[in-house]
Amino acid sequence: MKTNIFVRDAMTKRPVVARPNTSILECAKIMKKYNVGSLLIKDDNDELVGIVTEEDFVQRVIANKVDVNEPIHKVMTKSVFTIDESEDIFDAIMKMKDLDIRHLPVVSEDGKLKGLITMKDILRLEPQLFDLIVDIIELREEEDKFAALRNKGL
Hints:
The chain has 6 helices and 6 strands; from the N terminus they run αβαββαβαββαα. The chain is α/β, with parallel strands linked by helices. The protein has one domain: CBS-domain. β1, α2 and β2 form a beta-alpha-beta unit.
């Protein structure tokens, strides 16, 4: 299903970023200052090299008692999934659902970072999509359950 709303129309065009050697504590302070749930990590060439989320702070820093003075590159997610700015936001929704993520960096055709789209961005732009998103996710989960049963010969 297409909404005819492009990712570039819903994304945050100036995502909050940090460098890989920024301390974990400083990154947390940056996220607090800008009231964001994720931080994109770019190297000195402005290439996207990672992302860190609130969930990463809980699971990778606090739960493992990592020293907050360590650089963020030690706990960031290095394999970053992205989406092209020309994709429909429905595709972004499905990608986030399939990957179980809520923050998706947006790139241009040539791979340059253009922004960040989050589930909050999408719902802020098109609140009526919330019910549709829930319905689609529930339908996919039901389809997965039926497929699993079929595979078991039931």
